[in-house]
């Protein structure tokens, strides 16, 4: 039987472990040759672009309709406040990728911290949105006040619902991690959740610009 | 036999095997062609996003000082830049297989085109 001569600093065969992404990966066993869950998420996100596009278009169509009762966007929008909540959502994308990088390194402690931070940032954003809705209602803009009110609440409310779903997803992953049911081998699950979370962020980038920042 | 070891290392480099332990380089996840960015790169991208957002907010307050058309153009360009940065770096479209990028591009461009046609037909931009 031959013996193995190993040079200093060179990896030995026992140091090497198969990964889920290697040649034995399940991704090559699918008909498409791609990871099914990732493909499904990208297809969902692609279709969700049309979903949000429909509501953004509806808002643009109705925001300046003449003869509307109730306050106008210029009277209502508090740009500094919405900018702060937008900043928080943007930072949640950073903590999300840091969580993914941590679990890929096998650093579960940092992974939990970053994942929980992401969920907390998301919850802060939703809290800000609830505060904003409360203020608008106090100033006389309800969902049935005008077509501007209807399209605004439906668009931003649906985005908020997406954020809430994301928070529940992240907290579920965090709970699994606390029960030691997530390891670095499950990094793909975190990446899929991350794709959803970042999508919610990019949709808000568009909503923030089109609805809040662009002047009439 | 050191050739066998070298083959194993080569196979690792091709994405089949990685060294065990926490100090291992980032593993390739399914559907990726290159490793993800480093945490330092993520922080740099986030810093760029913050700067662009600050400029966006500043530009939105210039109404009356510069033409509205210029403000709208600047805001849309900055929003597009942020969108592309998040999608390519945080959503890893830079390092994933091109087919994912194509799926997402078709969805985004299809939605923009469809609703631009609808809004133009309804004279929203006049």
Structure report:
The complex is a heterodimer of chains A (216) and B (126). Chain A is mostly helical and 216 residues long. Chain A contains six helices and one strand, in the order βαααααα. In chain A, α3 packs antiparallel against α4. The longest helix of chain A has 32 residues. Chain B is mainly alpha-helical. The N terminus of chain B is likely disordered. Chain B contains four helices and one strand, in the order αβααα. Chain B has three domains: 30 residues, no CATH class; 58 residues; 30 residues. Classes of the chains: A mainly alpha (216), B mainly alpha (126). Chains A and B meet through β1, α1, α3 and α6 of A and α1, β1, α2, α3 and α4 of B. β1 of chain A pairs antiparallel with β1 of chain B, so a sheet runs across the interface.
Notable characteristics:
heterodimer, A: 216 residues, mainly alpha, Four Helix Bundle (Hemerythrin (Met), subunit A), 1% strand, elongated, disordered N terminus, B: 126 residues, 3 domains, 64% helix
Please provide a brief summary of the model:
Chain A has 216 residues and is mainly α. Chain A has helices spanning 36-62, 73-76, 79-105, 108-138, 147-178, 187-213; one strand at residues 16-18.
**Distance between the ends of chain B:** 76 Å
Global shape of chain B: flat
Q: Tell me the helix content of chain B.
A: 55-70%
Chains forming the largest contact: A-B, 78 and 75 residues
Question: How are the elements arranged and paired?
Answer:
The complex is a heterodimer of chains A (216) and B (126).
Chain A (H helix, E strand, L loop, with lengths): L15 E3 L17 H27 L10 H4 L2 H27 L2 H31 L8 H32 L8 H27 L3
Helix pairs in contact in A: 1-5, 1-6, 3-4, 3-6, 4-5, 5-6
Chain B lengths: L1 H12 L3 E3 L19 H22 L7 H23 L7 H24 L5
